[in-house]
C-alpha cells in the first residue's frame, strides 16, 4: 500500500499535528509530503500515519509523528544549514530534514538500518543526505562543524564532544535522561557567551549506545 492510498489517515495525521501545536508551515508541508509508510515495517504500514512510535529492525523504533515534527520545528531549519543526526533508524527523520536543510549527515550504528535507510532515501531522491555507519557517541574528529544537531536516542548526559561540533548560533536538540524511562527533550543553543539550555517536553526514546553494532 502506497502513501497515496491513505487519504483519511493522512488528513487526520495533519490535523493531529496542528491540534498538538505544530504551526511551522514548512514543517507541516514536509510532514505531509514525506511518505511515512515507506519508512515503517511492511506489517505496520496500515498504522504508519497514527500518532504513535512503531518498531523497526534491530530493536529500534520510528518516533511518533508529533515528536518528529516537534523536534524538527525546534531546530528552526534553513536551507543554508548543515545538520547532523545521531541515530538514522529507518531514515524517516533524515528525509524530513532533507527537505528543510542544505545538507544532512545521519549516523547509524546498525549496518542493516544504515543500508535500508540509504536505499529509502535514494529512492526518494534525498540526494543531500549522507548515511554513515558509525558510533554517534564517538565521531571522527574531522566531522563538523554543524549548524544543527538532532539526537534521536536517549542520552543520560550530553557528550561534550558533540556540543563542540555546534557552530555559534547553532541549535542542538536531544532527549536527556535515563535510558529506560522518561527523558526530557532539551534544546541547547550555542551563543558567543556559551551554551543556553531549555527543557521542552517529556519523551521516550530507545537508548543511545556506544560503538558500532557487531551484528545486524
Automatic annotation (TrEMBL):
<keyword id="KW-0489">Methyltransferase</keyword>
<feature type="active site">
    <location>
        <position position="63"/>
    </location>
</feature>
<feature type="domain" description="Ribosomal RNA adenine methylase transferase N-terminal">
    <location>
        <begin position="67"/>
        <end position="199"/>
    </location>
</feature>
<keyword id="KW-0949">S-adenosyl-L-methionine</keyword>
<comment type="similarity">
    <text>Belongs to the methyltransferase superfamily. L-isoaspartyl/D-aspartyl protein methyltransferase family.</text>
</comment>
<dbReference type="GO" id="GO:0000179">
    <property type="term" value="F:rRNA (adenine-N6,N6-)-dimethyltransferase activity"/>
</dbReference>
<dbReference type="InterPro" id="IPR029063">
    <property type="entry name" value="SAM-dependent_MTases_sf"/>
</dbReference>
<comment type="function">
    <text>Catalyzes the methyl esterification of L-isoaspartyl residues in peptides and proteins that result from spontaneous decomposition of normal L-aspartyl and L-asparaginyl residues. It plays a role in the repair and/or degradation of damaged proteins.</text>
</comment>
<dbReference type="InterPro" id="IPR000682">
    <property type="entry name" value="PCMT"/>
</dbReference>
<dbReference type="Pfam" id="PF01135">
    <property type="entry name" value="PCMT"/>
</dbReference>
<protein>
    <recommendedName>
        <fullName>Protein-L-isoaspartate O-methyltransferase</fullName>
        <ecNumber>2.1.1.77</ecNumber>
    </recommendedName>
</protein>
<dbReference type="GO" id="GO:0004719">
    <property type="term" value="F:protein-L-isoaspartate (D-aspartate) O-methyltransferase activity"/>
</dbReference>
<keyword id="KW-0963">Cytoplasm</keyword>
<dbReference type="InterPro" id="IPR020598">
    <property type="entry name" value="rRNA_Ade_methylase_Trfase_N"/>
</dbReference>
<dbReference type="GO" id="GO:0005737">
    <property type="term" value="C:cytoplasm"/>
</dbReference>
<keyword id="KW-0808">Transferase</keyword>
<dbReference type="GO" id="GO:0030091">
    <property type="term" value="P:protein repair"/>
</dbReference>
Amino acid at each position: 500500500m502506497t502513501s497515496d492510498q491513505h487519504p483519511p489517515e493522512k488528513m487526520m495525521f495533519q490535523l493531529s499535528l496542528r491540534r498538538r501545536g505544530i504551526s511551522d508551515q514548512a514543517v507541516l508541508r514536509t510532514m505531509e509530503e514525506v511518505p511515512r509508510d515507506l519508512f515503517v515495517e511492511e506489517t505496520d504500514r496500515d498504522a504508519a500515519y497514527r500518532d504513535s512510535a512503531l518498531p523497526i529492525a534491530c530493536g529500534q523504533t520510528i518516533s511518533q509523528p508529533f515528536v518528529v515534527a516537534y523536534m524538527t520545528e525546534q531546530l528552526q531549519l534553513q536551507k543554508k544549514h548543515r545538520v547532523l543526526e545521531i541515530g538514522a533508524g529507518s531514515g524517516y527523520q533524515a528525509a524530513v530534514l532533507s527537505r528543510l536543510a542544505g545538507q544532512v549527515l545521519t549516523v547509524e550504528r546498525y549496518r542493516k538500518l544504515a543500508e535500508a535507510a540509504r536505499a529509502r532515501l535514494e529512492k526518494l531522491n534525498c540526494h543531500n543526505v549522507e548515511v554513515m555507519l558509525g558510533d554517534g557517541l564517538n565521531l571522527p574528529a574531522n566531522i563538523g562543524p554543524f549548524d544543527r544537531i538532532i539526537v534521536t536516542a536517549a542520552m543520560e548526559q550530553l557528550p561534550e564532544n558533540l556540543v563542540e561540533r555546534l557552530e555559534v548560533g547553532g541549535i542542538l536538540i536531544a532527549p536527556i535522561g535515563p535510558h529506560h524511562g522518561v527523558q526530557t527533550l532539551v534544546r541547547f543553543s550555542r551563543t558567543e557567551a556559551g551554551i543556553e539550555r531549555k527543557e521542552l517536553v517529556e519523551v521516550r526514546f530507545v537508548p543511545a549506545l556506544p560503538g558500532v553494532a557487531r551484528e545486524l
